[in-house]
Design a protein that fits this description.
The complex is a heterodimer. Chain A is mainly α. Helices cover 87% and strands 0% of the residues of chain A. Chain B is built from 7 helices and 8 strands, in the order E-H-E-E-H-E-E-H-H-E-E-E-H-H-H. The chains are: A mainly alpha, B alpha+beta.
Chain lengths: 71, 265
């Protein structure tokens, strides 16, 4: 197993993971009917909110930790 | 809470005056701005605070404020994301830069929510200063395809409005198009300008996000509630999929979980 190092490797992994999501999303979008599309849209939208809440929570915690260190 | 739209009592103040005052106020805080009006009285202001670095990482503070006079003398004020031309450019930068855009979208959405609150505060203060009367308002509920009870070609019920959905600048002028445009019946999951999924870009408009961000903080309880909501939707969605669709759906979820894991690593 190879391990990539440096920012280029990490960025490459991120880009690949994002591209894979996009590819599969397009494939799914192509095979659902309008009703399923609408329901899936709601699901993915709420999923994105969940993901954003988690990220924001982590950023808040990081900010709080930095503030405490600075105090 | 950053509402998306409000019906304001502005006591005769014109959208043009309010828009210009708001533009001046943001200009004093070193925001870029541009405005657009039409003969019907509809007036749009776009503001942003941008830098090259912020643009690359999707952290530009960008907002569209749209003013539409109502028949009863009130003014409909809508807030939305600003599809600034630079965003289109950043979407074309390449796959390596697109992923950080996703990563920072949540933080950018939170900042945008703060920007919306500033707009509301300014408008209320300005109307009171100019007229000596409070700028009473009513939260306006969007009425569009997908809203429960929605019927095409039927005017929105009291307290509702047809959102001005398309803020994308036109290629010829660089400014937003005039008036409302009907939402497509099945909008694609991908932006036509950035070719990226639309879901991250719409987080700021989601009620679940607005509720959770009401106090500017995210608690474990709020994350738990949202996770439960997502799980409920997943089960509901799966019931209506056939076997091959369900397999594809599972692959998408696995890929999204992997993307989140890569972000955190």
């Amino acid at each position: 197993m190879t391990q990539e190092t440096g920012t280029g490797g990490a960025g490459s992994n991120l880009a690949e993971a994002a591209e894979q999501v996009n590819k599969l999303l397009r494939e799914l979008e192509a095979v659902v009917n309008p009703e399923q599309h609408e329901a899936l849209t709601e699901f993915f939208s709420e999923w994105s909110v969940l993901s954003a809440l988690r990220t924001t929570r982590e950023m808040n915690e990081t900010d709080e930790t930095s503030s405490e260190k600075g105090a | 809470m950053a509402d998306q739209a409000r019906f304001y009592e502005v006591h005769g103040l014109a959208p043009l005056e309010l828009g210009n005052a708001l533009a001046d106020w943001f200009r004093a805080q070193e925001f870029e701005w541009r405005t657009f009006g039409d003969p019907s009285g509809h007036y749009t202001l776009q503001i942003r605070k941008a830098s090259t670095t912020r643009s690359i990482f999707g952290l530009n503070y960008a907002l569209t404020v749209s003013f539409t006079p109502q028949g009863d003398g009130k003014l409909l004020v809508e807030l939305g994301g600003a599809d600034w031309t630079d965003k289109i450019v950043s979407g074309a930068v390449g796959a390596l830069l697109i992923t950080p855009l996703l990563f920072t979208a949540a933080y950018g959405a939170w900042q945008q929510s703060e920007l919306a609150n500033k707009v509301w505060e300014f408008l209320q203060g300005y109307v009171y200063q100019r007229t000596g009367q409070p700028a009473n308002f009513q939260i306006a509920l969007p009425y569009y395809v997908g809203t429960p009870g929605y019927q095409p070609n039927v005017p929105p019920p009291a307290g509702s409005y047809n959102p001005t959905t398309n803020y994308a600048p036109t290629m010829s002028t660089g400014f937003p198009p005039v008036g409302s445009q009907p939402a497509p019946t099945t909008p694609s999951w991908f932006s036509q300008t950035t070719m990226q999924p639309i879901f991250d870009q719409q987080i700021g408009k989601m009620m679940s996000w607005q509720r959770a961000m009401e106090d500017g903080k995210v608690t474990d309880e709020e994350i738990k509630e949202q996770a439960a909501q997502v799980e409920k939707l997943r089960q509901s969605v799966e019931q209506d999929l056939d076997t091959s669709q369900r397999i594809k759906f599972a692959e998408v979820i696995a890929a999204m979980e992997n993307l989140e894991a890569v972000h955190k690593s």
